[in-house]
Amino acid sequence: MECPAACPQSCYADCNSCKPVCVCSVPGACGDPRFIGGDGNAFYFHGRRDADFCVLSDRDLQINAHFIGKRGDGMTRDFTWIQAIAVLFDGHRLYVGARKTAAWDDDVDRLELALDGEPVRLPQEADAAWTSSAVPALSITRTKAANGVLVALDGRFKIRANAVPITEEESKVHRYGVTSDDCLAHLDLAFRFDDLTGDVHGVVGQTYRSDYVNRFDVRAAMPTMGGETNFTTSNLFAADCAVARYAPAGAGHHDDDGVAMV
């Protein structure tokens, strides 16, 4: 059921009750990157900066994420965030990314969108919508005038993506080490899947399986998923991770050149 027009903007796009729900707390959400699995449990997957990982892989859907990051003083691992995602479906390639940005301005759109290598351009106004002529079931709608979109493929998935920065205050508190030439613009994401198979895999995808068993230490402050090598892809548009399931019937060949990321 869709939220009615009167639903507040803070409401998650697929709510049934139309009560305000923060997208960071629903299954399929991910932030820094803190994920909420399909089973409703939160966990962290740090990956590594400047690398690509499979978020979800199913027979006819693959979602990969490009990680950026910084290593704070005295830290043994990178702080990481998702800068962009690639959505592979039915032989098509959808790109959603946050452009590298120095000083952040909420009114300046920093989202970059492309389908099969062709830019998707939306008027910079809330509720502006685009529907693909190549894929009529695919639509992208601005959830606000800048830096927020809802991507939907009818009967398959919905993805809410917001481009956000690391603020100076956050950097000081957590020692992220943000510099004046890069505010580490990244994506906050929320996924809704409607037609997954029982064999789905990936960092988040596996948590939607009926046989998934949560083995995290419930006492840990930051339950962290390992197995990085299982989810690594050779590039953002590749379905070649160790757990890849993506094999769309009748899909044509595409080269691996995607949207250049800065």
Would you give an account of this structure?
- This is Root cap.
- Pfam families: Root_cap.
- By secondary structure, the chain is mainly beta.
- The protein has one domain (23-233).
- It has helices spanning 168-174, 228-231, and strands at residues 29-30, 34-36, 42-44, 51-58, 61-70, 79-89, 92-98, 111-115, 118-119, 129-131, 138-142, 148-153, 157-164, 186-193, 232-233.
- It has a 7-stranded antiparallel β-sheet with strand order 9-8-7-6-5-4-15. The protein has a 6-stranded antiparallel β-sheet with strand order 1-14-13-12-11-10, with no helix packed on it.
- A hairpin with a 6-residue loop joins strand 10 (129-131) and strand 11.
- The longest helix is centred in the middle third of the chain and has 7 residues, at 168-174.
- The protein starts with 28 loop residues before the first strand and ends in a 29-residue tail after the last strand.
Question: What helical percentage do the residues reach?
Answer: under 10%
Strand count, sense and closure of the main sheet?
Answer: 7 strands, antiparallel
> How confident is the prediction overall: mean pLDDT?
83
Q: Which structural class matches the secondary elements?
A: mainly beta
Number of strands: 15
User: What are the low-pLDDT stretches, counting only 5+ consecutive residues below 50?
Assistant: 1-22, 252-262
Radius of gyration: 18 Å
Q: What is the helix tally?
A: 2
Distance between the termini: 38 Å
- Overall shape: globular
Number of domains: 1
Strand content: 25-35%
Largest sheet strand order: 9-8-7-6-5-4-15
Order of helices and strands, N to C?
EEEEEEEEEEEEEHEHE
